[in-house]
Amino acid sequence: MLKFIKQNMETISGIEIYPVISLLIFFAFFMGLYWWVFTYKKEKIEELSNMPLDENDNNKN
Amino acid sequence: MEVQQFYYDNKIVKKFLYASILFGVVGMSVGLLVALMYLFPNITEGIPWLSYGRLRPLHTNAVIFAFVGNAIFAGIYYSLQRLLKTRMYSDVLSNINFWGWQLVIVAAAISLPLGYTSSKEYAELEWPIDIAIAIVWVVFGINMIATILKRRERHLYVAIWFYIATFVTVAVLHIFNSLALPVSAMKSYSVYAGVQDALVQWWYGHNAVAFFLTTPFLGLMYYFVPKAANRPVYSYRLSIIHFWSLIFIYIWAGPHHLLYSSLPDWAQNLGVVFSVMLIAPSWGGMINGLLTLRGVWDKVRTEPVLKFFVVAITGYGMATFEGPMLSLKNVNAIAHFTDWIVAHVHVGALAWNGFLTFGMIYWLVPRMWKTELYSKKLANFHFWIGTLGIVLYAVPLYVAGVVQHQMWKDFNPDGTLKNNFMQTVEAIMPMYWMRAIGGTLFIIGLFVLCYNVIKTIKQGQKVEDELAEAPALARIKSGRLKGEKFHGWLERKPIQLTILATIAILIGGVIQIIPTLVVKSNIPTISTVKPYTPLELEGRDLYIREGCVGCHSQMIRPFRHEVERYRKEESGGYSKSGEYVYDHPFLWGSKRTGPDLMGVGGKYNDNWHFNHMYDPQSTSTGSIMPSYQWLFKNKAMDFSKTEAKMRVMQQLGVPYTDEDIANAQASIKAQGEKIEKSLHNDPEFVKSYEMNKKNTLERGEEFVPMSQREITALIAYLQRLGTDIKVKE
Fold first, then answer.
1. Which domain holds residue B30?
2. What is the pLDDT of residues B363-395, one digit of tens each?
3. Which pTM does this prediction carry?
4. Does B631 fall in a domain?
5. Which of B18, B166, B389, B465 is buried deepest, with most CB atoms within 10 A?
6. Does A13 lie at the interface with B, CB-CB under 8 angstroms?
7. How near does any CA of chain B get to the CA of A16, in Å?
8. Integer Cα distance of B36 and B39 in angstroms
9. How near does any CA of chain A get to the CA of B241, in Å?
């Protein structure tokens, strides 16, 4: 399948750098995301996930 | 801290709930009618505004924007206030949102059957309604963001992020896809042409599914599933990853709707890669939803609300597994243009959107009307008949899709095609029957819901705004607090969060669309491709008005069987992107209930088209195409706007000269008379035409020659289709 992709791309000058750039973008995006969620404190996560439940509704379940 | 008292606005939620149920009944009933038309094509014979081509967009728009749309607003207005511990920012804006949205729906319900359509799927509404949608949507956005700003809860729960992404992305998609130049109050032409129009349309179409049918419902899932199960979401961390990766990746996947089409290959491949990646965040979300029920599976057995949620989330999982599979080129080659796609979208629509909405309604109504659900038994019955309906709807259509594709590409040993198109339709008629039965079951379930809801409301109390109390939010420094992490800060800063989400969704769109719009080499021009003549242009507008694109594609994929069936190599072969450069809008279509029409020009004589449009079964036995008798009426076609249409086309870059425009009426007359003359080759035509003429004149009415009636313009267009690249002798 890769040959279909390469065939279109070969004509662009400096194309070799593109895959590296996209890899870096994605690597950074998802590493950032994991850093985001795993540096959370457990208590904070607990508090956040309970938000829909701790409403002072008059008619709770 | 001082505790403040305030009221949640329940009345606006009630209004949206009523509207959602009402339009659910309307939209699904139209859907059932449309499904019956596959079995009885002439069920509404002779009534233009009840013809298949005009009703299909009414069905899709009613279900997506009226049923699901109102359910989204109901869910958001309910959960947003409670998650932020505040009333909506402005009751006036809430009501403008409600009444404006209903006005748009009514305008759609009137204009679509009358044939006012842009023909772009899920964006069929004409420009004045498009503007109204944009205004109402912005009102909704302002109301939501202003509510967020006056909240009493520091942190924004993940459901609200999904709502914000929904607002931003739908606004961007709607505006860019609807860009058009108006000809008159209810007619416009897309500013994009051919391949570019196709790319923008499916960037929109795919992401309308993503950001209208998916992200708001994921927000609702993250709120209502924990509520109904009475336990927090399985993993809040996973929900953060779910959100960002979903919105970042989704926006790139649009081109998978155009595989093997004339779209440049690089864009197709990009669409495939991102579609495959999408399975990760989608399944992450599905698992997060289902595992929220860990430890309460016993409740699922007794609680209908949870049953609906389980099937809804499972449906989401199935549809989002199937989506990436369908975007693989080899699978897409089979499924595209067949009923497989119809099955796929209905698993999403009936299970994910339908069942999540039903579960939400069964949960909300008893709470808002302060009573118990009238009958759990009936709700359980609804669940089972609805589930059965989904299965009976989808499975036969999967079979139909595969069967039909296999028949399409069957060759005899001598290299000729084994089946004509008609045979491939006849083979799947039983599946169309089962689909209609499945749809009927699903609607019966909806009627049971209506009865149950009415009974519950009758035994309940009046809906009142609900008193709540919460401490005011203390002001803190807007920058990062000491020791506060970046994300902690971001999640209490709605504006910054909105901006970041907007950037995430813009990257993919920009990278795909801008090169296709600006890089000329992406669409090689073909010197023999010329603009349509004035009569053909008018005929094309009839094609658009009657919704022909709902059943006929104009895109021959580069497969041996398609070239053999639709346009042989010597006549031009598979479709080239340069053939569509004057097509504002593009009419590639997405479904072949009937055959592709790109190679239809010159394939049959004018009389064949004439007879076929009047009575399709007379030329093609067993055809499920309806007749279009109103095109033959003794009435002159309206050519008063032809010049204006050509001027708009000229502005859009179609090379009509001023002389062409000045000569438009003469050119129409000449081409029309030529077609009338060629119709006279058939003695049958001459006989009935003369008789008709005599009768009309005897009644003392004016007789309009065939050359001036609508059918002639349509024939002119059909005979032109795909002929520009034919090698002329």
1. 8-375+495-512
2. 999 999 999 999 999 999 999 999 999 999 999
3. 0.92
4. yes
5. B166
6. no
7. 15
8. 5
9. 6
